[in-house]
Write a structure and sequence with these properties.
Length: 190
Protein backbone atom coordinates (compact mmCIF):
# COMPACT_ATOMS: atom_id res chain seq x y z
CA UNK A 1 0.00 0.00 0.00
CA UNK A 2 2.84 2.43 0.88
CA UNK A 3 4.43 1.77 -2.52
CA UNK A 4 1.16 2.60 -4.27
CA UNK A 5 0.83 5.84 -2.33
CA UNK A 6 4.45 6.75 -3.08
CA UNK A 7 3.90 6.05 -6.78
CA UNK A 8 0.73 8.14 -6.83
CA UNK A 9 2.59 11.01 -5.14
CA UNK A 10 5.36 10.84 -7.73
CA UNK A 11 2.82 10.98 -10.54
CA UNK A 12 0.78 13.79 -8.97
CA UNK A 13 3.75 15.72 -7.56
CA UNK A 14 6.88 14.79 -9.52
CA UNK A 15 9.16 17.19 -7.64
CA UNK A 16 7.81 16.18 -4.23
CA UNK A 17 10.85 14.97 -2.32
CA UNK A 18 9.63 14.84 1.28
CA UNK A 19 9.00 11.60 3.08
CA UNK A 20 6.83 10.96 6.10
CA UNK A 21 8.79 10.18 9.25
CA UNK A 22 7.74 7.81 12.01
CA UNK A 23 6.30 10.84 13.80
CA UNK A 24 3.96 11.52 10.87
CA UNK A 25 5.77 14.74 9.90
CA UNK A 26 7.12 15.45 6.44
CA UNK A 27 10.92 15.28 6.22
CA UNK A 28 12.87 17.34 3.70
CA UNK A 29 16.52 16.68 2.88
CA UNK A 30 17.38 20.17 4.14
CA UNK A 31 15.95 19.55 7.62
CA UNK A 32 18.49 18.82 10.35
CA UNK A 33 18.26 15.99 12.83
CA UNK A 34 19.77 17.52 15.97
CA UNK A 35 19.63 17.09 19.74
CA UNK A 36 17.30 20.13 19.72
CA UNK A 37 19.54 22.21 21.95
CA UNK A 38 18.78 25.54 20.30
CA UNK A 39 22.00 27.24 21.45
CA UNK A 40 24.03 24.41 19.91
CA UNK A 41 21.90 24.50 16.76
CA UNK A 42 22.44 28.26 16.49
CA UNK A 43 26.21 27.83 16.86
CA UNK A 44 26.24 25.15 14.17
CA UNK A 45 24.10 27.28 11.85
CA UNK A 46 26.45 30.24 12.37
CA UNK A 47 29.50 28.03 11.72
CA UNK A 48 27.96 27.05 8.38
CA UNK A 49 27.09 30.67 7.53
CA UNK A 50 23.36 29.89 7.69
CA UNK A 51 20.35 31.21 9.56
CA UNK A 52 18.58 29.07 12.16
CA UNK A 53 14.91 28.31 11.57
CA UNK A 54 12.59 26.39 13.89
CA UNK A 55 9.72 24.85 11.93
CA UNK A 56 6.78 23.66 14.04
CA UNK A 57 4.47 21.10 12.43
CA UNK A 58 2.05 18.35 13.47
CA UNK A 59 0.87 14.97 12.23
CA UNK A 60 -2.13 15.20 9.92
CA UNK A 61 -1.80 18.95 9.36
CA UNK A 62 -3.33 19.66 5.95
CA UNK A 63 -1.52 22.99 5.74
CA UNK A 64 1.86 21.40 6.50
CA UNK A 65 1.09 18.83 3.80
CA UNK A 66 0.24 21.65 1.38
CA UNK A 67 3.51 23.46 2.15
CA UNK A 68 5.58 20.33 1.55
CA UNK A 69 3.76 19.31 -1.62
CA UNK A 70 3.21 22.70 -3.26
CA UNK A 71 5.89 25.01 -1.88
CA UNK A 72 8.89 23.13 -0.50
CA UNK A 73 8.78 20.78 -3.51
CA UNK A 74 9.68 23.68 -5.81
CA UNK A 75 13.38 23.67 -6.63
CA UNK A 76 13.73 27.47 -6.30
CA UNK A 77 12.29 27.38 -2.78
CA UNK A 78 14.01 24.21 -1.56
CA UNK A 79 17.42 25.17 -2.94
CA UNK A 80 17.20 28.64 -1.35
CA UNK A 81 16.34 27.10 2.02
CA UNK A 82 19.02 24.40 1.68
CA UNK A 83 21.70 26.96 0.77
CA UNK A 84 20.87 29.58 3.41
CA UNK A 85 19.09 28.03 6.38
CA UNK A 86 19.63 25.47 9.12
CA UNK A 87 16.13 24.07 9.72
CA UNK A 88 15.16 22.26 12.90
CA UNK A 89 11.71 20.65 12.90
CA UNK A 90 9.59 20.57 16.06
CA UNK A 91 6.46 18.45 16.57
CA UNK A 92 3.64 20.56 18.06
CA UNK A 93 2.51 17.52 20.09
CA UNK A 94 5.92 15.84 20.48
CA UNK A 95 7.64 14.60 23.59
CA UNK A 96 11.24 14.96 22.42
CA UNK A 97 13.20 17.22 24.77
CA UNK A 98 14.27 20.68 23.61
CA UNK A 99 16.66 23.03 25.32
CA UNK A 100 15.47 26.59 24.74
CA UNK A 101 17.95 29.47 24.54
CA UNK A 102 17.16 30.38 28.16
CA UNK A 103 18.37 26.91 29.23
CA UNK A 104 14.96 25.48 30.03
CA UNK A 105 14.62 21.83 29.01
CA UNK A 106 11.09 20.87 28.05
CA UNK A 107 9.16 18.69 25.61
CA UNK A 108 8.41 19.89 22.10
CA UNK A 109 4.73 20.34 22.99
CA UNK A 110 5.60 22.34 26.11
CA UNK A 111 8.06 24.49 24.12
CA UNK A 112 5.38 25.24 21.50
CA UNK A 113 2.98 26.18 24.31
CA UNK A 114 5.66 28.34 25.99
CA UNK A 115 6.30 30.12 22.68
CA UNK A 116 2.57 30.72 22.13
CA UNK A 117 2.42 28.70 18.92
CA UNK A 118 -1.08 27.44 18.21
CA UNK A 119 -1.09 26.79 14.48
CA UNK A 120 0.95 24.67 12.12
CA UNK A 121 3.02 25.19 10.25
CA UNK A 122 4.70 27.98 12.21
CA UNK A 123 8.20 29.01 11.24
CA UNK A 124 10.41 30.95 13.67
CA UNK A 125 13.37 32.78 12.14
CA UNK A 126 16.24 33.36 14.58
CA UNK A 127 19.01 35.98 14.55
CA UNK A 128 22.69 35.04 14.63
CA UNK A 129 23.00 36.08 18.28
CA UNK A 130 20.55 35.23 21.05
CA UNK A 131 20.92 36.29 24.68
CA UNK A 132 20.97 33.49 27.27
CA UNK A 133 17.84 34.85 28.97
CA UNK A 134 15.76 34.87 25.77
CA UNK A 135 13.40 32.21 24.45
CA UNK A 136 13.14 31.19 20.81
CA UNK A 137 9.89 33.12 20.56
CA UNK A 138 11.22 36.32 22.13
CA UNK A 139 14.45 36.20 20.10
CA UNK A 140 12.79 35.52 16.74
CA UNK A 141 13.21 38.22 14.10
CA UNK A 142 10.14 36.96 12.26
CA UNK A 143 7.35 34.41 12.55
CA UNK A 144 5.63 32.87 9.55
CA UNK A 145 2.33 31.56 10.94
CA UNK A 146 0.53 29.16 8.63
CA UNK A 147 0.73 27.98 5.05
CA UNK A 148 1.55 30.43 2.29
CA UNK A 149 2.21 30.18 -1.42
CA UNK A 150 5.65 29.74 -2.91
CA UNK A 151 6.16 33.45 -3.65
CA UNK A 152 5.30 34.58 -0.12
CA UNK A 153 7.39 31.80 1.42
CA UNK A 154 10.42 32.53 -0.73
CA UNK A 155 10.05 36.26 -0.08
CA UNK A 156 9.92 35.68 3.70
CA UNK A 157 13.03 33.48 3.67
CA UNK A 158 14.80 36.05 1.46
CA UNK A 159 13.69 39.01 3.59
CA UNK A 160 15.10 37.30 6.71
CA UNK A 161 18.28 36.09 5.01
CA UNK A 162 19.02 39.60 3.71
CA UNK A 163 18.32 41.01 7.21
CA UNK A 164 15.80 43.45 5.82
CA UNK A 165 14.14 43.55 9.26
CA UNK A 166 17.22 45.56 10.37
CA UNK A 167 17.11 48.08 7.56
CA UNK A 168 15.86 51.58 8.16
CA UNK A 169 14.41 51.75 4.67
CA UNK A 170 10.83 51.62 5.94
CA UNK A 171 10.30 48.47 3.89
CA UNK A 172 8.76 46.02 6.31
CA UNK A 173 7.93 42.53 5.08
CA UNK A 174 4.53 43.50 3.68
CA UNK A 175 6.02 46.32 1.57
CA UNK A 176 8.93 44.13 0.50
CA UNK A 177 6.56 41.34 -0.52
CA UNK A 178 4.26 43.73 -2.42
CA UNK A 179 7.28 45.11 -4.29
CA UNK A 180 8.49 41.58 -5.14
CA UNK A 181 5.02 40.63 -6.43
CA UNK A 182 5.07 43.68 -8.71
CA UNK A 183 8.61 42.91 -9.89
CA UNK A 184 7.62 39.33 -10.75
CA UNK A 185 4.55 40.63 -12.61
CA UNK A 186 6.84 42.92 -14.58
CA UNK A 187 9.12 40.02 -15.48
CA UNK A 188 11.99 40.78 -13.12
CA UNK A 189 13.65 37.70 -11.60
CA UNK A 190 16.15 39.48 -9.31
Amino acid sequence: MKRLIALLLLVAFPAFSATLGDDGLHKQDWMRDTFKDLSEDLAEANAEGKRLVVMVEQRGCIYCDKMHKEVFSREDVSSYIRDNFFVVQINLHGDTEITDFDGEVLSEKDAARKWGLLFTPSILFLPEDVESDETAQSAAVALMPGAFGAGTTLDMFTWVNEKRYELDSGEDFQRYHARRIQERANGSTD
